[in-house]
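Hi W.,

Here's what went into the run:
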Amino acid sequence: MSLKIKNLSQIIRDNFDEIITEHTFTKGEILQRDNSFKHNIFIVHSGLLRSFYFHDGKEVTALFALENGLIGPGDSILKNKKSKYNIEALETSTVLILNYKELDNFIKGDAIKERLIRHIVQLIYIESVERLENLIFYSAKERYDHLIAHFPDLNQRVNQGHIASFLGITQETLSRIRGK
Amino acid sequence: MSLKIKNLSQIIRDNFDEIITEHTFTKGEILQRDNSFKHNIFIVHSGLLRSFYFHDGKEVTALFALENGLIGPGDSILKNKKSKYNIEALETSTVLILNYKELDNFIKGDAIKERLIRHIVQLIYIESVERLENLIFYSAKERYDHLIAHFPDLNQRVNQGHIASFLGITQETLSRIRGK
DNA sequence: CGCCGAGTTGAACTGAATCAAGAAACGTGG
DNA sequence: CCACGTTTCTTGATTCAGTTCAACTCGGCG
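Here's what came out:
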């Protein structure tokens, strides 16, 4: 689904207070556009975000992030290039904003903070591997069921189209799956 | 394909000399079996390794690693549980062995080493995301072509069956793709 | 009231899986 | 160096999950 660490929002406040800003976005607002060099990471305090990008002219949802979730222009941050990701608030959301470069400077020389960030990166990595294996081995229906099992109210909060592209299927297929 | 960092092998020697061991394995040898708690990471100095696991009774190749590549029981290391991965030498290979727990202790308190490991984890993460997107958007043939473009001699060095399961397709499909 | 975006449904098509059989390549022992 | 069995690879016929494209429904809302 998206990385979720219990109390992430509090952990970030406790450790990176000097460099975070807090902001509330309303439903539909774009927190960050693609083609940007602003390598910001958003930690969701409340609400719901998604990241998406365009592939073959179609929107693809890369990630959802809810409370204590973390979202950002993933590989672009790490490759230090323009981002292909857009970040959008799907609901009115309060988020902590952390700029990756500032973060990188801020933790330099601090073994404990380096370690904390490393652990978070490791968790993000695990997420990705699990999603990869999920995609290889399970059918569209199984992936959908799995997603809803982990996030029961997703259907009430997010468009079918977003869910479909997150699952890597078409909206028509998702509709048929849902229609039993 | 697998993580490959130029000079990784040298970087590891330079920074983790006290805790690495070096070993040469012959073709077909299993460096580490599944269901193990030995959370070892292998850095390939020369040769070729693969990690694989069983899904529905079938072998699935998770990763290949060649020179300066890194391989290990991925998420199991990070989740501190038994590994489902087997690591096998596909050719006679000289590898550096790094135990994750020792590593974790060794770098504790050392901001520079923590940072180095974090950067490596970040690269591994990027690999995974790229592989995920690759899988979502491209056909079996495209994925195969892409793989071979990045690793031209793979066919001479690895079984078709291993390549197929790495790509997430059956061996029959791979054979048809290759037969033009 | 009529439009608009979101979701559903239908029919035809297709990439890849499955199952089953052969063909090639390979290595080990006589 | 050949003969054998085993493992690897190919080929064919069939099936199926998911795509595509197009039309249709539904619930706001201006």
